[in-house]
Amino acid sequence: MYTMDSSYTNGVSDVEEMEMGNKAGDTVELVGSCQDLFVIVSSVEDKDQSHSEKRKVFEENLREEDLQLKEEIRNNLRCVKIDITLEVCKIYADFLQLRMPMKQTNLNLLGDLGAQKQPPLSAVYNKDKEYLFDVTENSFSNAIKCRIIDFILRRTRFEPKDGSDLSFGIDSLLDDGTYVAAYPVHEEEVLDQWIEQWKLCSCSGLRSLYDHETLDALRNYFGEKIALYFAWLGFYTMMLIPAAVVGILCLIYPLATLSKHKPSQDICNADNVTMCPLCDTCDVWPLNETCVHSKISYVIDNPATLFFALFMAFWGALFQEMWKRYSASLIHHWGLTGVSLEEQPPRPQYLAMLSDDVPQHKDPVSGRLEPRPDWWSIKLPRILASISTIILLFLVAVTAVISVIIYRMSVRAALALSIDESWKVSILTSMSAAFLNLIILFILNKIYDFLAEKMTEIELHRTQKEFEDSLALKLYILKFVNYYTSIFYIAFFKGAFIGAPDDYNRLFGYRVEECPPGGCLLELTMQLAIIMVGKQILNNFQEIVLPWMYRRWRQWRSINDESGQQGPRWLKDYFRVHFGTKGLFDEYLEMILQYGFVTIFVSSFPMAPLFALINNVIEFHLDSEKLLTLFRRPVAVQDTGIGIWFNIITSIGSLSVLSNAFIIAFTSTFIPELVYTAIGGTGNLDGFVNSTLSVFNVTDYSAGQQSHIQQNIELCRYPGYRFPPNGDDNEYKLRPIFWHILMARLAFVIVFQNVVWLVIKIITLAIPDVPEKLQLEIRQERYMANSLILKHEQDRAKERQEVRLRRTTTHF
After folding, report:
1. CA–CA separation, 252 vs 240, rounded Å?
2. What parts of the sequence cross the membrane (predicted)?
């Protein structure tokens, strides 16, 4: 879209122009009838003299900005209701570079190209070129007007002009208690229509997640930032449909071929195969006890697993590219293509943390003197402290995982004494450990949320965007470690370093865990399912129940609850939950973590896309219901993308390729089966289970271990590729087949990731970020806008020349 050149300005600032207009005695034109757009609320019981002085100066300065203020007192709350004039809207539309529709009649000057343009042509508004634009009262929605009011509130002084240069902004007044709230007021009629519309959307299925009319209405009422979140959530949810369908098909395939799976048949028919004890106090057990376990494992670990991993790798790349195209179309549809976001002011918290002796420097954009902390003496020590804290929290997460591992080993040993079936011991141990891990994750997450925000505060980020980006990255890293450490352990480390029965590796005196003959993929799937589904349930509980309880508590504490329920709209909104500057932060973080479950470990959990799809449909309607019924109306924020979250998604895509390659190579039985089929001589899996089990002489156990073995046997079997007890130097050492399989696994990882990344690169290059049709439309609109301006400038220059010529002729 077109952006006007700065050379068209006349050099007069917005403030100077406003003052000149006031001095000239211009009448003030209200945008429509007087209405309560925005309110700032203070407590009647606040007797602090300094607060009163600040409020007086602040509100007087707001009136000087031509804002319309009206005071009302209810429930010991003093509310100042704010309205705005059309003239002020025009001034700040120019300053904020808002796009406004150009006069449709001017398009006729462009001939056929202008006649073909159906939607109104828009451009960045320039007050000096007002003759180009069709700006009326209806050009500014209430959301835009509230955004302009918020912009003014954040830059208005609350101390006399001879005071500190940093004494400005509603945020500082909220922080020190001068005001208790500042928020846009919900539009009663529009809100009721929205609530009714969302009830209809809830019944209209998945189409409502992708409906442009719904997104346009969201954008007009809540602003682009919130609309983009719902657009991304809806797009992501729709993209999950093919992934969920393929995941279901990859689940149907092993169910249909289970009866033909030779390894599970061999395990179920192994009546005479005795396995070595699973713990120091356990007895030997028959291999066929894991018959059910082996069949369930095949449902997850089968040839379709490789196909699904490949499919999801390409799906992730396609999702990223298609989102870029869709968001480009959406941004163009909203008239934001090429719009640069305005410079953000310094955060009040940032200014408050800086001492008076910090050197002052002039900001190149605003021209204000601001404190700028020295990098080496002030910022670097704080950043190092933050990094150290992150490392400490990382170690806490690892310690929690180790604790769960110890719990699992001790519970396994305890259950083995009372339960004979080893597969039941394995299932019960894994499930209880997964639930325990979920509880620990939930507790650690609360600690991480608190500490991450504190660490980000001390890092002295100047703007809100810098603060949010740093916090997002920090919290994602912490929660990534928190959620995924136990999963990485099961996927890549459990059963990899158990040693041999004559010399088991131990952790705090316990034997390290080993995988059953069917592998650890089933346990990995259980861990993923419990954590993913459990996290979604807990998050949904927090997002709906807790804000509702908080709102009811605020109403209960109010002096007159009935007044709060039946009073004016601003009072009803006051009892709602403050949306805050990080209102969408938790929503994005939750979805990005879910995206990690769907992609990073999808080869071990084919149902992950389906669970994510179901959750997201619910999430879409829960989030919209929160905005409409629980939260105050947020300030409309202009945005042109989802910011740092897309960078995190891109990083997850690269990590998922490597992760799934390692899961298939080292956790799945795919590679051992492939090697056995290739070099075993039979060309099939006959005898495969027997080839994966080594032999151990029971007499080689210690006396204490032997005392727990109740059966009279000489040899037992255990998973591994080791030489039998033949009395030579190779006894219990690794056989050559182990190294062959290891080399095949490493080769698979290298081939898999390089082939996938090559195809992803081809997909990225083949699919342009902006559709060709849209590129042509943007070029046409840029050409039309430039031509229109040039045509007007030529006509106006010709008119001025004719006027001068007539004056000269008249003079002579």
Report:
1. 18
2. 229-256, 304-323, 383-407, 427-445, 480-500, 592-614, 642-666, 737-760
- The rounded distance, in Å, linking the Cα atoms of 576 and 631 is 5
Q: Cβ(31)–Cβ(137) under 8 Å?
A: yes
Tell me: pLDDT of 792 over 70.
yes
Mean per-residue pLDDT for 450-472? 84
Rounded to a whole number of angstroms, the distance between the first and last alpha carbons of the chain is: 49
DSSP state, residue 8: G
Give residues with Cβ within 8 angstroms of 54, minimum separation 6: 158, 159, 173, 178
pLDDT band at 165 (very low <50, low <70, confident <90, very high): low
Q: Is 90 exposed, middle or buried (0-12, 13-18, 19+ CB in 10 A)?
A: buried
How much is the pTM? 0.83
* Both tokens assigned to 679: 């070099």
d(CA 597, CA 594): 5
Sign of CA dihedral 318, 332, 87, 218: negative
CB 261 within 8 A of CB 322: no
CA nearest neighbour of 483 among 537, 438, 520: 438
**Which residues touch 767 (CB under 8 Å, ≥6 apart)?**
318, 321, 322, 325
Tens digit of each residue's pLDDT (9 = 90 or more) over 379-431: 888 888 888 888 888 888 888 888 887 887 777 777 766 666 665 776 777 77
Q: How far apart are CA 77 and CA 40, in angstroms?
A: 10
Average pLDDT over residues 616-625: 83
